[in-house]
Amino acid sequence: MTHRPLFLLLAALAGLASTGVIPSARATGILPPSYPDAERINAGRRLFFEETFDGNGRTCGTCHPATNNFTLDPAYIATLPDDDPLFIAERPEPNPLSRHFENPALMRQLALIKENTNGFGALETDFTMRSVPHLLAMRTSLLAPTNGNDGTTLPPDQRTGWSGDGAPVDPDGPLSPRGTLRDFTLGAIVQHLTRTLDRKPGKDFRLPTEEELDAMEAFMLSLGRQHEYEDFRSLRMKDARAERGRLNYMGVGVSGTLNCNACHFNGGANTDPSFDFPAAITPPAFELSNRSFAPRVEELLDQPADIIDASGNPFDDGFGHGTSLFNVPTVIEAADTGPFFHANQIDTVEGLVAFYSSKRHLRNGQVLPPIVELNGSQVANVGAFLRVLNADENVRSAIQLIRQAELVFRRHARRVNLEIAVSEIEDAIQVLEGGKLHFADAVPALKRARRLAARPFTMSKAKRLLRRIRPMLIERAGQTSDASLDGHHH
């Protein structure tokens, strides 16, 4: 949790926020009006991508662009013009944000953003450099463990941000937020949208209204999967390597106590409620929740940020202060949301798996044993499995977006849906090609679907083709309806 100076500021923000009317969302609506809570979600979307809150020109979408999986990576950043609000710290003097606001080198080369997780009392020395987490499937990943049985506390009531305490919390403040996703918006405005380092409400930014906070929360919760992924035991990967990777992920053929599924149950952010964690790793929980662990990736020797700017990459102590705890992200969406971990330490999904199966050489000279004992072939197998899962989710999302495009009538809203659908299809192609997977069936079909999805008069053909692609990737037990495969809101 954060230190007292930030507590006071954010408690004041919560108390100062006034009520108001959410502006019309018709200009940028994605969801058709018939969808549940469409008006609120569409209003939250407009705020997320267009509202600067009278700050420095950034919006929430500056760091969470929709066509880049709501995250930043160096390749995407390289496509942005120099006058993009992301680069506010690089603007010429007089510039009140030129120092202690961002690290331009680490931002451009590694997509790292400066965070004052312990408050704003010592901007020059007390900060961390963190990657931008994607916002997909957040509805499935916010559940905090009960009774602090993973070394964390309540509040924060929800697990937001890399350390699980990303929302501002002041346990003693009568108007303090409770550390929820809704509260997180306040902290993001103060940290990233301010005009100066004074961070004064009414001068450096305006406060969101209660209605705006509610709408933005609804929008963020609407992104990606709305439910946990299917039971991995009921799936069969059509690719033989990916199928063996599924078994390796579940612990088949793996020596040692742990397997991947223990911490990423069915590929999600929650732990396996039936897994008996060794006491030396973390206290047993026997519950489905987003637990925090200390893999100590922030202590790795030769990590990218140290190579580029060691002095600008201080130790990140994780949850609270000095715990080194970081909460678990989902891995269904991993293959196209890299680089990985809370400071983009690893570039590829295979490297991500290899981190857990390799000795960890730390900055202090200590060498720690592997967490999950996979051999080299099994690392590749699990990587193939994760790639197929990710591509399948890309296709599901694209089908849903095309369905939404079919049901809206304004050309702008239709264009927005199709643009994101095409980006999902492109992600599926890149993810599969990166692992040399499904090059004879799904990849050529996806390339045809990409062309069809780019035009309104062929989008329905694209949707039908995408429905045929999912069974090319994964064989599912039983008969699955189009509605569930499409991720339809109804």
Question: What is shown here, in short?
Answer:
The chain contains 16 helices and eight strands.
How would you characterize this protein structure?
This protein is mainly alpha-helical. Among the domains are: 218 residues, no CATH class; 110 residues, Four Helix Bundle (Hemerythrin (Met), subunit A). The chain contains 16 helices and 8 strands. A two-stranded antiparallel sheet has the order 1-2. The protein has a two-stranded antiparallel ribbon with strand order 3-8. It has a two-stranded antiparallel ribbon with strand order 4-5. Helix 12 packs antiparallel against helix 13. The protein starts with a helix and ends with a helix. The N terminus is likely disordered.
Sequence stretches where pLDDT stays below 50 over 5 or more residues: 1-5, 18-29, 481-485
Task: Please outline the major beta sheet.
Answer: 2 strands, antiparallel
Q: What class would the helix/strand composition place it in?
A: mainly alpha
Oligomer: single chain
The coarse overall form would be globular
| Amount of helix | 25-40%
- Binned strand content: under 5%
Q: How do the strands of the widest beta sheet line up side by side?
A: 1-2
Number of strands: 8
Count of helical stretches: 16
Q: What do the pLDDT scores average to? A: 90
| SSE series | HHHHHEEHHEHHEHEHEEHHHHEH
Q: How large is the radius of gyration?
A: 22 Å
- What is the distance, rounded to the nearest whole angstrom, between the alpha carbons of the first and last residues? 38 Å
